[in-house]
Amino acid sequence: MKTFQTIRRVALCLAALIVLASPVAAQTTINSTTTTAAVDNKQQVFALTAVTNISTGTRNLAGDVLYFADNSGEAVQVNAIDTTAKTVTVTRGVRSTPATAHLSGVTVYTGPAQRFAVSLGFGTCTATNELYLPRIVLNRNVVQDCLGGQWVQTNVNGFPVLGTTVASAAGVLTPTGTVFTVSGTAAITGITLPNGALPGFRITIVPSGIFTWTTATNIAIAGTAVVNKALDFTWSGTKWVPSYLS
Predict the structure, then answer these.
(1) Tens-binned pLDDT, residue by residue, of the chain (246 aa)
(2) Is 187 left (phi over 0), alpha (psi -120 to 50) or beta?
(3) Is the model's pTM score more than 0.85?
(4) Residue range 28-115 in CATH 2.40.30
Protein backbone atom coordinates (compact mmCIF):
# COMPACT_ATOMS: atom_id res chain seq x y z
CA MET A 1 0.00 0.00 0.00
CA LYS A 2 2.83 2.39 0.92
CA THR A 3 4.54 1.58 -2.38
CA PHE A 4 1.35 2.47 -4.33
CA GLN A 5 1.00 5.79 -2.45
CA THR A 6 4.62 6.64 -3.14
CA ILE A 7 4.22 5.94 -6.87
CA ARG A 8 1.03 8.02 -6.92
CA ARG A 9 2.78 10.99 -5.26
CA VAL A 10 5.69 10.78 -7.72
CA ALA A 11 3.27 10.64 -10.67
CA LEU A 12 1.39 13.71 -9.44
CA CYS A 13 4.64 15.62 -9.00
CA LEU A 14 5.79 14.73 -12.51
CA ALA A 15 2.45 15.81 -13.95
CA ALA A 16 2.70 19.15 -12.16
CA LEU A 17 6.22 19.69 -13.48
CA ILE A 18 5.11 18.95 -17.05
CA VAL A 19 2.30 21.49 -16.78
CA LEU A 20 4.63 24.14 -15.38
CA ALA A 21 7.26 23.46 -18.04
CA SER A 22 4.84 23.50 -20.99
CA PRO A 23 5.16 26.65 -23.11
CA VAL A 24 2.11 28.88 -23.21
CA ALA A 25 1.23 30.21 -26.65
CA ALA A 26 0.70 33.96 -26.65
CA GLN A 27 0.46 36.27 -29.62
CA THR A 28 2.91 39.16 -29.55
CA THR A 29 4.20 41.75 -31.98
CA ILE A 30 7.65 41.09 -33.45
CA ASN A 31 10.24 43.50 -32.05
CA SER A 32 11.05 46.45 -34.26
CA THR A 33 13.28 49.51 -34.39
CA THR A 34 14.20 52.07 -37.08
CA THR A 35 17.27 53.13 -39.03
CA THR A 36 18.76 56.46 -37.92
CA ALA A 37 20.55 57.19 -41.20
CA ALA A 38 20.40 56.05 -44.81
CA VAL A 39 22.00 52.68 -45.60
CA ASP A 40 23.56 51.94 -49.00
CA ASN A 41 23.45 48.55 -50.70
CA LYS A 42 26.93 47.47 -49.53
CA GLN A 43 27.16 48.92 -46.02
CA GLN A 44 27.75 46.25 -43.39
CA VAL A 45 27.63 48.49 -40.31
CA PHE A 46 24.70 50.83 -39.70
CA ALA A 47 22.94 52.57 -36.83
CA LEU A 48 19.52 51.85 -35.34
CA THR A 49 17.32 53.69 -32.86
CA ALA A 50 17.67 50.80 -30.39
CA VAL A 51 19.61 47.53 -30.24
CA THR A 52 18.47 46.25 -26.85
CA ASN A 53 16.29 43.44 -28.23
CA ILE A 54 18.79 42.26 -30.84
CA SER A 55 21.08 39.25 -30.33
CA THR A 56 24.29 38.09 -32.00
CA GLY A 57 23.34 34.51 -31.22
CA THR A 58 25.45 31.83 -29.57
CA ARG A 59 28.01 29.27 -30.65
CA ASN A 60 25.26 26.97 -31.98
CA LEU A 61 22.68 29.59 -32.93
CA ALA A 62 22.98 32.24 -35.63
CA GLY A 63 22.47 35.91 -34.85
CA ASP A 64 19.12 37.62 -35.21
CA VAL A 65 17.57 38.44 -38.56
CA LEU A 66 16.68 42.05 -39.38
CA TYR A 67 14.00 42.72 -42.01
CA PHE A 68 13.69 46.15 -43.64
CA ALA A 69 9.99 47.00 -43.86
CA ASP A 70 10.31 49.31 -46.86
CA ASN A 71 9.23 46.99 -49.67
CA SER A 72 12.86 46.26 -50.54
CA GLY A 73 12.48 42.75 -49.16
CA GLU A 74 16.01 42.66 -47.72
CA ALA A 75 16.86 40.60 -44.67
CA VAL A 76 20.28 40.70 -42.98
CA GLN A 77 21.91 38.60 -40.27
CA VAL A 78 23.46 40.20 -37.20
CA ASN A 79 27.09 39.32 -36.48
CA ALA A 80 28.05 41.98 -33.92
CA ILE A 81 26.43 44.77 -31.89
CA ASP A 82 27.88 48.01 -30.50
CA THR A 83 25.48 48.96 -27.71
CA THR A 84 27.18 52.32 -27.14
CA ALA A 85 27.02 53.51 -30.75
CA LYS A 86 23.77 51.56 -31.34
CA THR A 87 25.15 49.97 -34.48
CA VAL A 88 24.99 46.46 -35.88
CA THR A 89 27.46 44.60 -38.10
CA VAL A 90 25.61 42.34 -40.50
CA THR A 91 25.73 40.00 -43.45
CA ARG A 92 23.65 41.58 -46.21
CA GLY A 93 20.97 39.96 -48.34
CA VAL A 94 20.45 36.70 -46.46
CA ARG A 95 17.53 34.27 -46.88
CA SER A 96 17.58 34.72 -50.69
CA THR A 97 16.78 38.44 -50.42
CA PRO A 98 18.41 41.32 -52.38
CA ALA A 99 20.89 43.74 -50.79
CA THR A 100 19.41 47.19 -51.47
CA ALA A 101 19.66 50.76 -50.20
CA HIS A 102 17.38 51.99 -47.40
CA LEU A 103 16.26 55.41 -46.21
CA SER A 104 16.64 56.83 -42.71
CA GLY A 105 13.67 56.13 -40.45
CA VAL A 106 12.72 52.80 -42.03
CA THR A 107 11.10 50.28 -39.68
CA VAL A 108 13.28 47.20 -39.10
CA TYR A 109 11.72 44.04 -37.65
CA THR A 110 14.12 42.02 -35.52
CA GLY A 111 14.34 38.57 -33.99
CA PRO A 112 15.59 34.99 -34.29
CA ALA A 113 14.94 33.32 -37.64
CA GLN A 114 12.10 31.22 -36.18
CA ARG A 115 10.01 34.35 -35.62
CA PHE A 116 9.77 34.79 -39.38
CA ALA A 117 7.43 32.63 -41.46
CA VAL A 118 8.48 30.24 -44.21
CA SER A 119 5.13 30.22 -46.02
CA LEU A 120 2.21 32.52 -46.73
CA GLY A 121 -0.90 32.49 -44.60
CA PHE A 122 -4.02 31.60 -46.61
CA GLY A 123 -7.70 31.79 -45.72
CA THR A 124 -8.85 31.94 -42.12
CA CYS A 125 -6.73 32.60 -39.06
CA THR A 126 -7.00 33.30 -35.33
CA ALA A 127 -4.77 36.14 -34.19
CA THR A 128 -4.45 34.84 -30.61
CA ASN A 129 -3.15 31.51 -31.94
CA GLU A 130 -0.25 33.16 -33.76
CA LEU A 131 2.97 33.30 -31.76
CA TYR A 132 4.10 36.44 -33.60
CA LEU A 133 2.49 39.08 -35.78
CA PRO A 134 2.88 40.43 -38.35
CA ARG A 135 3.56 37.28 -40.35
CA ILE A 136 6.70 38.06 -42.36
CA VAL A 137 7.70 35.71 -45.19
CA LEU A 138 11.26 36.75 -45.94
CA ASN A 139 11.91 35.17 -49.34
CA ARG A 140 8.53 36.41 -50.65
CA ASN A 141 8.70 39.97 -49.23
CA VAL A 142 5.18 39.54 -47.88
CA VAL A 143 3.92 40.93 -44.58
CA GLN A 144 0.52 39.77 -43.34
CA ASP A 145 -1.81 40.41 -40.43
CA CYS A 146 -4.79 38.40 -39.19
CA LEU A 147 -7.73 40.81 -39.63
CA GLY A 148 -11.25 39.73 -38.81
CA GLY A 149 -10.17 36.08 -38.82
CA GLN A 150 -8.49 36.12 -42.24
CA TRP A 151 -5.03 36.81 -43.64
CA VAL A 152 -4.49 40.23 -45.21
CA GLN A 153 -1.27 41.48 -46.80
CA THR A 154 -0.33 44.78 -45.16
CA ASN A 155 2.96 45.86 -46.77
CA VAL A 156 1.24 46.58 -50.11
CA ASN A 157 -2.25 47.29 -51.37
CA GLY A 158 -2.81 43.92 -52.97
CA PHE A 159 -5.98 41.99 -53.72
CA PRO A 160 -8.94 43.43 -51.76
CA VAL A 161 -10.08 41.24 -48.88
CA LEU A 162 -13.76 41.55 -47.95
CA GLY A 163 -14.29 41.78 -44.21
CA THR A 164 -17.33 41.38 -41.99
CA THR A 165 -19.55 44.32 -41.05
CA VAL A 166 -18.30 46.46 -38.16
CA ALA A 167 -20.65 48.48 -35.96
CA SER A 168 -19.57 52.09 -35.44
CA ALA A 169 -19.59 51.87 -31.67
CA ALA A 170 -18.11 55.05 -30.21
CA GLY A 171 -14.35 54.57 -30.03
CA VAL A 172 -11.58 53.02 -32.12
CA LEU A 173 -12.57 50.97 -35.17
CA THR A 174 -10.78 47.68 -35.90
CA PRO A 175 -10.67 46.67 -39.60
CA THR A 176 -11.85 43.18 -40.54
CA GLY A 177 -10.39 43.31 -44.06
CA THR A 178 -9.36 45.89 -46.64
CA VAL A 179 -12.99 46.40 -47.73
CA PHE A 180 -15.85 46.20 -45.21
CA THR A 181 -19.17 47.77 -44.23
CA VAL A 182 -19.53 50.01 -41.18
CA SER A 183 -23.01 50.27 -39.70
CA GLY A 184 -24.47 52.56 -37.05
CA THR A 185 -24.20 56.27 -36.33
CA ALA A 186 -21.72 56.51 -33.44
CA ALA A 187 -18.56 58.62 -33.74
CA ILE A 188 -15.36 56.75 -34.64
CA THR A 189 -12.38 58.21 -32.75
CA GLY A 190 -9.62 56.27 -34.49
CA ILE A 191 -8.72 53.20 -36.53
CA THR A 192 -6.51 50.34 -35.34
CA LEU A 193 -3.38 50.12 -37.52
CA PRO A 194 -2.90 46.56 -38.81
CA ASN A 195 0.41 44.91 -37.97
CA GLY A 196 3.00 45.58 -40.66
CA ALA A 197 1.05 48.36 -42.40
CA LEU A 198 3.28 50.75 -44.35
CA PRO A 199 2.55 54.35 -45.41
CA GLY A 200 0.15 54.11 -48.34
CA PHE A 201 -1.78 51.15 -46.91
CA ARG A 202 -5.47 51.72 -47.57
CA ILE A 203 -8.80 50.42 -46.30
CA THR A 204 -12.18 51.02 -47.95
CA ILE A 205 -15.30 51.43 -45.84
CA VAL A 206 -18.84 51.17 -47.21
CA PRO A 207 -21.11 53.12 -44.81
CA SER A 208 -24.58 51.69 -44.17
CA GLY A 209 -25.32 54.42 -41.62
CA ILE A 210 -24.46 58.09 -41.20
CA PHE A 211 -21.61 57.87 -38.70
CA THR A 212 -18.94 60.48 -38.02
CA TRP A 213 -15.23 60.24 -37.37
CA THR A 214 -13.09 62.53 -35.24
CA THR A 215 -9.42 63.47 -34.84
CA ALA A 216 -9.27 62.25 -31.23
CA THR A 217 -6.52 59.69 -31.92
CA ASN A 218 -5.03 58.80 -35.31
CA ILE A 219 -7.34 60.23 -38.00
CA ALA A 220 -6.06 63.36 -39.75
CA ILE A 221 -9.34 65.16 -40.50
CA ALA A 222 -12.86 64.78 -39.07
CA GLY A 223 -15.87 64.10 -41.28
CA THR A 224 -19.26 62.48 -41.78
CA ALA A 225 -20.06 59.32 -43.73
CA VAL A 226 -22.47 59.20 -46.66
CA VAL A 227 -24.52 56.01 -46.95
CA ASN A 228 -23.21 53.72 -49.73
CA LYS A 229 -20.48 56.22 -50.71
CA ALA A 230 -17.19 54.33 -50.43
CA LEU A 231 -14.84 55.95 -47.94
CA ASP A 232 -11.09 55.30 -48.15
CA PHE A 233 -8.66 55.79 -45.29
CA THR A 234 -4.97 55.85 -46.27
CA TRP A 235 -2.20 55.50 -43.69
CA SER A 236 0.30 58.37 -44.02
CA GLY A 237 2.80 56.93 -41.55
CA THR A 238 1.36 58.94 -38.66
CA LYS A 239 -2.37 59.40 -39.43
CA TRP A 240 -5.27 57.90 -41.39
CA VAL A 241 -6.25 60.31 -44.17
CA PRO A 242 -9.91 60.11 -45.35
CA SER A 243 -10.93 60.33 -49.00
CA TYR A 244 -13.79 62.73 -48.24
CA LEU A 245 -15.15 64.79 -45.34
CA SER A 246 -18.93 64.62 -45.83
Answers:
(1) 445 444 445 444 434 433 333 344 455 889 999 999 999 999 999 999 999 999 997 766 789 999 999 989 999 999 999 999 999 999 999 999 999 999 999 999 999 999 999 899 999 999 999 999 999 999 899 999 999 999 999 998 888 999 999 999 899 999 999 999 999 999 999 999 999 999 999 999 999 999 999 999 999 999 999 999 999 999 999 999 999 987
(2) beta
(3) no
(4) yes
> What is the number of alpha carbons within 13 Å of residue 39 lying toward its C-beta?
29
Domain boundaries, the chain: 28-115, 166-242
HSE toward the beta carbon, residue 100, CA cutoff 13 A: 15
What's the CA gap between 74 and 138, in Å, rounded? 8
Return the closest-CA partner of residue 182 out of 200, 195, 201, 163: 163
Residue 150: which of 169, 175, 183 has the closest Cα?
175
Residues 6+ apart with CB under 8 A from 89: 44, 45, 78, 79, 80, 81, 82
- Cα angle: 215, vertex 157, 225; to 5 degrees: 35
Half-sphere exposure of 101 toward its Cβ, with a 13 Å CA cutoff?
4
